[in-house]
TrEMBL record:
NCBIfam families: PRK13364.1, PRK13365.1, PRK13366.1. It is an enzyme of class 1 (oxidoreductase). This is Protocatechuate 4,5-dioxygenase beta chain. Its EC number is 1.13.11.8. Gene3D superfamilies: LigB-like (3.40.830.10). Pfam families: LigB (PF02900). Keywords: Dioxygenase, Oxidoreductase. One of its GO terms (molecular function) is protocatechuate 4,5-dioxygenase activity. It comes from the Bacteria. Residues 8-265 form the Extradiol ring-cleavage dioxygenase class III enzyme subunit B domain. SUPFAM superfamilies: LigB-like (SSF53213).
């Protein structure tokens, strides 16, 4: 069967791509952030996953406010980044994995999730920045990616209890896939942050660290929060925690924390990096 070997949480701030492109990783502002990534890169290079299931939120590139699916999954063979408003970045396309993604899509619909299934799909920094963080220089072409997009911008948005259930359903779908594939799951996005309004710049470090602890030991406890709670406690964009919760839901077996790094503020955002090793349960 396909095997989920681990889960990773990471930021997807667009400024990260600019810092990497301009060689700023060792500057005082960025160094505490980038210093957290070598152990995760080493693990990925050692384990060599075949497929990445990547939870992210689209920031208006593929899905704007006039058409906003609650949950969308890509089933294409290739995904391209496109102009997000500051010029088209010259980065390579992302390789898709159509067989497993179609299997997951069918399984999710049977499991009661009304997914938007995308045979063509542009992907933004929410997906490409995490891949570049793990394989610098955009050297991610060897790994196949299944994008899963969660609405974190336009109300109504799915609640943490629903995103966790989505992750659990994806975990079961992977378990039921017969091909021998190694799968890693990425939950991407900021932790506490608010980018505009009277509370712009809010960082709730204590809450962020508690969430990282709970993602290891008691993820279902995080599902007691509503999106309103998250906005109040962690800022308006703190709802991106839903991607981390969905990732953790996919880990339906035993979990062991291997690495963690938390740093704030990077672009006025709490950035949590975590590597969780996972052992699938027996069928």
């Amino acid at each position: 069967m396909a095997n989920i070997i681990g889960g990773i949480t990471t930021s997807h701030i667009p400024a990260i791509a600019n810092a990497m492109a301009n060689g700023l990783e060792d500057t005082p502002y960025w160094k505490p952030f980038f210093d957290g990534y070598p152990p995760v890169r080493d693990w990925l290079n050692e384990k060599k996953p075949d497929v990445i299931i990547l939870f992210y939120n689209d920031h208006g590139l593929e899905f704007f406010i006039d058409k906003k699916p609650t949950f969308a999954i890509g089933v294409a063979d290739e995904y391209h980044n496109a102009d997000e408003g500051w010029g088209i970045p010259t980065i390579p396309p992302v390789t898709g994995e159509s067989d497993l993604s179609w299997h997951i899509a069918n399984s999710l619909v049977e499991d009661g999730f009304d997914m938007t299934i995308c045979q063509e799909m542009k992907v933004d920094h929410g997906l490409t920045v995490p891949l570049n963080l793990m394989w610098p220089g955009h050297n991610y072409g060897h790994v196949k990616v299944i994008p899963v997009c969660i609405n974190c911008e336009q109300h109504p948005m799915p609640q943490p209890k629903r995103t966790f259930a989505l992750g659990q359903a994806i975990g079961r779908a992977v378990q039921s896939f017969d091909d021998d594939l190694k799968v890693a799951v990425f939950g991407t996005g900021g932790m506490s942050h608010q980018l505009d309004g009277e509370r712009a710049g809010i960082i709730n470090r204590e809450f962020d660290l508690m969430c990282l602890d709970k993602l290891v030991s008691d993820p279902e406890d995080l599902t007691k929060y509503s999106n309103f709670d998250l906005a109040e406690i962690a800022g308006a964009q703190g709802v991106e925690l839903n991607m981390l919760i969905a990732m953790r839901g996919c880990l339906i077996g035993d979990v062991k924390e291997l690495h963690r790094n938390y740093h704030a503020p990077i672009s006025n955002t709490g950035s949590g990096l975590m590597l969780l090793e996972h052992t699938m349960p027996e069928k």
